[in-house]
Structure prediction request, 313 residues.
Amino acid sequence: MAYHDDLLAQALQLIHVTPPSQLTLRRAVSAAYYAVFHYLIAEATSNWNNVPLRAALARAYDHGTMKASSSRILDPKKFPYSGQDPTVVTNLRFVAQTFSQLQEDRHFADYNLTEDLSPAEALTQVKSAEKIFNTWPAIRGEQISQAYLVSLLVKRF
Amino acid sequence: MPNASNSGARKRTSVRSSRSKVRSAAQKGAGLSALRSGQFTRSNRRRDNIIVQVPTGYVNQAQLGEIIAHAAQHLGPEVVHVAYSLGPDSTDEPSLFFRIVLADAYIREDTITDLTGRITAALFDAVRPLENWGLRPYFNFRSKSEQDRRPDPKWM
Prediction:
């Protein structure tokens, strides 16, 4: 399995640990975010023909840029996607919104110990990551999806 | 009706919804407060103004509260309570944080993603946080029993 698949599997495994603990819940959310992070980067770099250099290219991706790009396409004024299949647009925006959300969730899970992460919160977050893995294959061939992947790398797209 | 837990604001507005499962933006000390443009941090919050200013413009919390309260009325029996707050996200971008309490009976692993997706879409479409408010939206969910067991003011 690819690394991102392993991370998602780990997140799902951790979310089912009984009884749950802050350790298992927080590690599950963190793994879920990184699963999506590496999945999207793998999808983007798969367009690079020189296969041995894809991993090096992947190092260029930045969390902040990826989040900004993901948030940007949620604004219909800036990205109306006129003439596009509404289902594709909805799915693409789901991926973008969920990526942005998961990054924020990971930030909480890894750094904020002032309040507990609840099992239901962690479950919704991990399952949303899983849904990205189920949603993306249906839209990866669309030009707007490929443009989104490029935007993840570019600060001002 | 929703509750804006923008700490520090002291003024209260008259915006209230008759619904029992959510509280208005005016309650819980939300009122309308101000943040200086480009300095959207907790330490820079002004406590007694009536407008929230974010780098992309002003946020009228009363108006925002009304919109969220109206949207919350149509979320269905799964939703026990909707709270929200304004503040910077982890990258210091002005953001709108929804905290949604769900009835325990509806939290099932096989359906939770569809449920939260539906709620997220409904609030997103009603509020249009980016295009109308310049705020990045975030949605978090927990169960009623979790909130009862460990009450968190941010979720009330």
